[in-house]
Amino acid sequence: MPTLTATRLIIGWLFLALSSQAASADFSITGSSSGDVSSLTLTANVQVAPSDIGRSGVIYVAANVAGAWVFKSADGTWNALTGGVFPAPYYSGALGSHAVSIIDRLNLSNYGGAEIYVGYGLNQDDMLSNAKFAMIYRVSITPTGVNPPSGVTPGLYFVDAHSQMDHNVDEERVISLMDRGGVYRTLLSAHPERDWADISAFARTLPERIVAAVQIKGRGYLSGPSAAYFNRLASQVANGAFKAMAEVLVFHDDGGEGVQFIKKTDFDDPQVLAAFDEAKRRAWPFIIHVEFAALSREEKESYLGKLARFLRNNPDHPFLMIHMGQLEEPDVRPLLDAHGNLYFMTSHADRFHQIQSSGKPFINMISGESLKPEWRRLMIERPDRFVFAIDNVFSNSWMPVTYLGIMELWWKALSELPADVAHAVAHGNAERLWNLAPRQGNVSVMPPWIAIEQLGPVTGYSANARN
What we know:
Elements: H1 3-20, E1 28-34, E2 40-47, E3 56-65, E4 68-72, E5 78-80, E6 91-94, E7 97-106, E8 115-121, H2 124-129, E9 133-138, E10 158-165, H3 171-181, E11 183-190, H4 196-205, E12 210-214, H5 226-237, E13 242-245, E14 248-252, E15 263-264, H6 270-281, E16 286-290, H7 297-313, E17 319-321, H8 329-338, E18 342-345, H9 351-356, E19 366-367, E20 370-371, H10 373-381, E21 386-387, H11 400-414, H12 419-433, H13 448-455
Helix pairs in contact: 5-6
């Protein structure tokens, strides 16, 4: 099955389960649980439709964890959806009444928002086409019996210094998630599948919340007719609504699961330099995308050398490495020591993005709900050199489970730092680098577990779903 088709079917499972199960009264799929989220036991009870009793079929058990799907097999292992093909079913054989053991006294505290589904059918297509499935359990974002942390840094709020918006998410969803995630402002660019003019209009409508960033990647950048890129760049910077520039790809590995999106160039590439010239002219920070962990040892050393020369040749301009450059602390520390104009963005550097990455070697700065010791030490030593960012790319990143899970994780992790450090990383450094006004006192910002209770469910549209 092609990857795109499988992905749409999976999204259909997620979207339709809530609306379909009540209408399908001729079968029943329910869940029963015991224990709290730190020691959870979960069983599903499947009663197939009368017309399916005794027929040969399959039962699937799946979990949606931060947008990534894993399936439980008959031997009890959980296997990721890869290459667009479902893993083996949990059960194959005669259909009837089934008790399905899903998890037994398992600690799911680190998987807030994960959703568990069970479905059956004569085959996979029958299950999906006839909506013979149901979501039977959702792991609480704030685990049952565990109080929200009392030590949340007073007055904390976030600026997301880099995210993107494709054609399958609307403006209402973006603002609704920001409100419920404690994000006061987002620097936002258009994904190549969306018209950049939509972003400039969005920023003009809500200038306190949305900062329009010039789109770099897309048609003509490193592939296709280069005139398309140069014309797009010129049109955006002349527009007047843009106050920032999105990431500039220097080395981007493939997209995972066979998605070919390899972009590889050098810092002296005319297209890179054209973007830098525009950013420098407007005093915009320059965001560099190099996936160092995907390079060979020799290539990594070569790109580190090229980066060092670029930074030294432009000592008065601020540069940021998106996704932490996929570099761990032993590489980051000497770079900060050597280059006072280099900063690191925390995007794609937590377990949510590791799960979603389809094997891409993103780092994880957080263990449990706390920064790893080496990152905590470095942030305290260099509080002015780290910038919070999410970098949502596709519409499925703008889903509540993913977005609010990421924000809850960073609220808790940064709140364990000294207050001045937490404020600097969460919003202060971005405000300083992009010359943004701090949050106005009349704008309320709350951590996700409080905001979702006070504001209600997320609204708007994303990834073919309104939930």
